[in-house]
Design brief:
Layout lengths: L2 E5 L5 E5 L4 H10 L6 E5 L5 H13 L2 E5 L2 E5 L10 H6 L7 H8 L1 E5 L12 H9 L3 E5 L2 E5 L8 E3 L5 H11 L5 E5 L5 H12 L3 E3 L5 E5 L8 E3 L4 H13 L3 E5 L7 H9 L3 E5 L2 E5 L9 E3 L11 H7 L6 E5 L10 H5 L5 E4 L2 E5 L8 E3 L3 H13 L3 E5 L2 H4 L5 H7 L4 E4 L3
Bound molecules: ligand EPZ.
The site of ligand EPZ has 24 residues, from helix 1, helix 5, helix 6 and helix 12.
Length: 420
Amino acid sequence: MSEIIINGGKRLSGEINIQGAKNSVLPVLAGTILCKGNCVVNNCPDISDVETSVKILESLGCKCHRDKNTVTVCGECVPHYEIPEALMREMRSSVVFLGAIIGRNGRAVISSPGGCELGPRPIDLHLSALAKMGVTITEEHGFLYCNAEGGIKGAEISLGFPSVGATENIILAAATAKGLTVIHNAAREPEISDLADFLNSAGARIYGGGSDTVYIHGVEELRGTEHSIIPDRIAAATYMACAAITGGEIKIRNIMPSHMVAMLSVFRESGCNIEISGKNLTLKAPDRLFSIPQIRSQVYPGFPTDAGPVIIAMLCKAEGNTVFSENIFESRFRYIDELKRLGAKIKTEGKIAVIDGIASLSGAGCKATDLRGGAALVTAGLAANGTTVIGEIQHIKRGYDDIVGTLKKLNADINYLNEE
Ligand code: EPZ
């Protein structure tokens, strides 16, 4: 299995472009199922989750073409409605295809998405909302059989938690439903707005995407369209953390600063000087970062849970202690034992991690436990004395478009080992 090898201690410097957002391209690709025509999706990151999404679309009968950063999907004919179990297993977030498949075909069969590295990943909010929209759902032998005889009906839905995936599934199911759907307490992440923009460009009538109340007037059908995915705010934070922990100075092009307000204030509080000009950001880090007394992950626009691992890694070498409270996922700290192999001083208790900043980390062998946990190991390895080898990097390839090539552009001493 391929690995990543890093010789740490070099200050990062240079300029990079940010990839398209993984958490936007997945629901947008699901949305192409609803479009009776050709959809061209630009600025797609070249990541394995996109590869899996294309396989799902092809298993449904869509004709797809993918060249590095553009995916073209022809949804003229989508005869199938079952996602193969292997693909469901490969990517837990494929549950977001459910609403679109039912919207197009009136029915869907998926295997219950297993848990994942972040703990149980229930989909009760998705299913109860779809049931309110007239979808009957039965579970047998680990499969969910969903039926909307006579089509999906608009409904008024109040989410008990502003779930990103549930909000996306409801929007996708409601786009071509009969009547009006209103979502109260909707997730407000920028990826929701991007999905609404994509669907509206295909003829949908969605208002309030990105706010906590979304109105979707169902339309007869959607047509083909062209759309460019928003920049990945979590990937941007990842490369900023890599520069910050090494005392580096980098420039990042093509970001949306308004999507990153909570994260930018954390970087500034740690002592980084950040200048924004349009869609470009320059980060200049101090020789040693300051710790941050308390960071809490929250739903958007609060500090995003996905940036937690790389920020925790970055603060392992800060001056002083940081307390990080993870408020979104059950067990998002599995990677911390791997960070400790590089000498990090972190204590965890439930959803709280206390990072005791130390002057230096030392390179070691370690393994990625999940996507963002793997990125945290890369971040720490870049600043560790000596060599770090990271295994199980398939987790990292799910969400980062050539993380090694990108970091090489920033003067990092990093390579793939036994690249497959
Ligand atoms: C999306 O996951 C993202 N994934 C996650 O990014 C991100 O961490 C998360 O939103 C929060 O921002 C994609 O967009 C593909 P949720 P999702 O539904 O939709 C509970 C990454 O690293 N919940 O907002 O699964 C759930 O258990 C990934 O890029 C229910 O209880 O997140 C969790 O504790 C990781 N019932 C919380 O809500 C439900 O029906 C947040 O889940 C749904 C969710």
